[in-house]
C-alpha cells in the first residue's frame, strides 16, 4: 500500500483495529450506514493478518498462520 499525506503507523494501527472489529462482529459490520458481510473463508483469512514492516511511505501486512490458529483457539 502506498501512503501519502498520513502517518503510516497510524494507518497500520487503524487497519488492524478494523480487522479486529470485523472479527469481533463475526463478519457482519455496519459502517456509516453500509452493512458489510464477510464469508467464513474471508473471516478465516482476516484472522491471520498482522502488521509487517512499515516505513514513511509504505506499510506491509502479512498472513500469519500462527496468529490465525491463536484467534481460532480464542474463539474469535
Keywords:
76 residues; alpha+beta; flat
What is the general shape?
flat
The total beta strand count reads 4
Helix tally equals 3
Series of secondary-structure elements, N-terminal to C-terminal: HEEHEEH
Helix content: 40-55%
Radius of gyration: 13 Å
Strand order of the largest sheet: 1-2
* Percentage beta strand: 25-35%
Structural class: alpha+beta
Arithmetic mean pLDDT:
84
Distance between the termini: 27 Å
Total domains, how many?
1
Q: Which runs of at least 5 residues are low in confidence (pLDDT < 50)?
A: none
Please state the oligomeric state of the protein chains shown: single chain
Could you give a quick summary of the protein structure above?
This protein has helices at residues 8-24, 40-47, 65-73; strands at 28-31, 34-37, 49-54, 59-63. The protein is α+β, with helices and mostly antiparallel strands.
Summarize the structure in words.
- With 76 residues, the protein is of the alpha+beta class.
- The chain has one domain.
- Helices cover 45% and strands 25% of the residues.
- The chain contains three helices and four strands; from the N terminus they run αββαββα.
- The chain has helices at 8-24, 40-47, 65-73; strands at residues 28-31, 34-37, 49-54, 59-63.
- The strands form two sheets. Strands 1-2 form a two-stranded antiparallel ribbon.
- A hairpin with a 2-residue loop joins strand 1 (28-31) and strand 2.
- The longest helix has 17 residues, at 8-24.
- The two termini are 27 Å apart.
- The mean pLDDT is 84.
